[in-house]
Amino acid sequence: MPVELNDTVPLSWKNATGDNETMLQNLQPNILKGHVRDRLHILLLQFAEGPEGTAAARAFLAGLVPLMKSAKTALEEVDAFNQHGTQGTPYVGVGLTNAGYGRLGLTGAVPSDQVFQRGMRHPDSLSNLSDPDPVQWEPGYQQTIHAVVLVGDADSSPAGARLAEVEALLTDSITVLARETGQTLHDAAGRAIEHFGYVDGRSLPLFLAEDLQAERDTMDGTSVWDPFLPLGRVLVADTAAPDPTTDFGSYFVLRKLEQNVRAFKAAEEELADALKLDNNDRERAGAMLVGRFRDGTPLTLQAEAGADKPVMNDFTYASDHAAHKCPFQAHIRKTNPRGSGGFEPPEGERLHLLARRGQTYGERAEGDLPESGVGLLFMAFNSELGQQFEFVQRLWANNAGFPQHGTAPQPGLDPVIGQGSRLPQTWPQAWGDDESQEVPAPEQAVTMKGGEYFFMPSLPFLRSL
Ligand code: HEM
What we know:
InterPro entries: Dimeric_a/b-barrel, DyP_N, Dyp_peroxidase. This is DyP dimeric alpha+beta barrel domain-containing protein. The chain has two domains: 18-257 and 453-464, no CATH class; 258-450, no CATH class. The protein has helices at 18-26, 50-64, 71-84, 98-103, 114-118, 123-129, 139-142, 156-168, 209-218, 261-274, 283-290, 331-335, 346-350, 389-397, 459-463, and strands at 39-47, 91-96, 147-153, 174-183, 185-186, 192-193, 236-237, 248-259, 355-356, 359-361, 375-382, 425-428, 436-439, 446-456. By secondary structure, the protein is α+β, with helices and mostly antiparallel strands. It is 28% helix and 18% strand. The chain is built from 15 helices and 14 strands. Bound molecules: protoporphyrin IX containing FE. Protoporphyrin IX containing FE binds at residues 194, 196, 198, 200-203, 257, 259, 290, 292, 331-332, 335-336, 356, 375-376, 378, 389, 392-393, 397, 416-417, 446.
């Protein structure tokens, strides 16, 4: 059976045979399902010019393969952990930029996505995304990046040990342009949160039959919102690999997004004050910015936190079409309108969904409200960057007119990640009520500090170098 990228029946990895089985053995982990980790190291690399640089780059990448595992092994490890508590092994992932393929001398076989080929620093991407001028990015991201290496584990010490093994392969011909260390933040209940304090990673597209079954068994179900996406929304044939019918990769977005926690907390308070929300209702201000309460309760489902066991994800905005519960501009409604965006039929909208794999970075003391130095290492896998990541940031988050809903005032920018000029926005005064009030838009509290597009190739490609 060939690998069916558009199959509407999800692939069961446990029952995969033939080309599907080979595909899973040849694919890097973390693409079809997020790799479990509390600690994640990221190295951004540049290879030296000339034949020596090319040879060193090829030797380094091929040398990484014994430290890596396949998607299949990673899935087996998760299963063994769930069944017997057996600890898994660290994750090592590697991606190349267009310039990186050039340094390997592989210009003919470069993955074909135009957005990938031009890179995140290209003027078209900068203007599409309304990103800051690269001279304001962190120094490492201003250079020409050739490769990224990710090293992660559920615990810091195996992650550190595997990082040391990766670093031992570096030579004088390879420059480390930047290093990032991601560390999962937890709330008092042990849930993974981002720096503004909200539970993250709840709504993710699912590609595998076993993960869909788990969502049905352990979450609130999949009868209203179907998280299934076909493999083709994330997998791309690896044309530089020995056999592109079984060797696949994925386009990987990395963006360092600094979070000004003090500014975001102030925005929550200012919105609560402007709407004169009373004590019991003040938490709703932040929930209106995000679309979920801190504990993950979707604002469109209820007026207060508390629907956190399990965290709900089986919802759409069908019963909230006028946005009297969850505002149109709330982060999760902007970035996944779940069929209510108004410009495309629901099936068209689903083509823009992307597989997020973000990780928080930066340390802070209890009670601290840092203005800089902490944030999100935003990461996501895509099969078409222009239709997925760039589409969502440009035409949804940064577009004041999205979602479209008749004659009512424009929603304005996504208050969390929107980049561009921020005009006043209207917010429902009471949950479910049609009275709304215009309030100056919250200050931008997320700043892009650098990023790049990569292709995460198949393991056979790396072995062939
Ligand atoms: C969901 C925070 C950046 C796209 C969420 C959630 C939070 C959050 C708290 C709710 C948890 C969940 O539904 O999984 C943040 C913060 C960011 C950030 C603090 C920056 C510092 C981005 C970016 C994008 C994005 C850059 C894409 C361009 C999404 C999507 C969802 C989501 C698609 C799920 C929406 C749904 O399916 O309901 N984010 N996010 N986020 N975010 Fe972000």
